Amino acid sequence: MRQDLPIDVTHEVRDRCLCLHLQRAARAVARRFDDALRDIGLSHGQYSLLMSLNRPDAPTLGSVARLLAMDRTTLTANLKPLQRRGLLRVEPDAQDRRGRRLILTDAGRDILVRAVPIWRATHDALDADIGAAGDLRPGLNAAAFAGVQS
């Protein structure tokens, strides 16, 4: 026997569902950063990935995957176009040959230097738009990393 779901349940989900609202906001914010970074040939995801490599010591693939909340397979797929452009290198870990280290190249550093002012201007505009809503980052980070071991 078929049972229909009342429309008020649909409205409840539309109005209350954090996942829906976060996904919709994330797509809109991502589009804004993608548009801003397009002239230098980066997406917001590529910018974040390259920025995560800007460290004194080359990070492992696993540590970057954890930081970006990506599985290793997805991260590896996202590395390939940046590798082809010469923005990063992937090398075996000297201490554990099974592991991989992600190394930001000079070309990768150069594109980040160009991207940071664009990111800042876009972020300043976004912060101004959010305004009264306040700083969402602490709560979003707590939700993203709940139960994740460091």
From TrEMBL:
PROSITE patterns on file: HTH_MARR_2
Gene3D superfamilies for this protein: Winged helix-like DNA-binding domain superfamily/Winged helix DNA-binding domain
InterPro entries linked: HTH_MarR-typ, MarR/SlyA-like, WH-like_DNA-bd_sf, WH_DNA-bd_sf
SUPFAM superfamilies: Winged helix' DNA-binding domain
Taxonomic source organism: Arenibacterium halophilum
Protein name listed in UniProt: MarR family transcriptional regulator
A Pfam family recorded for this sequence: MarR_2
All copies of domain HTH marR-type, residue ranges: 15-150
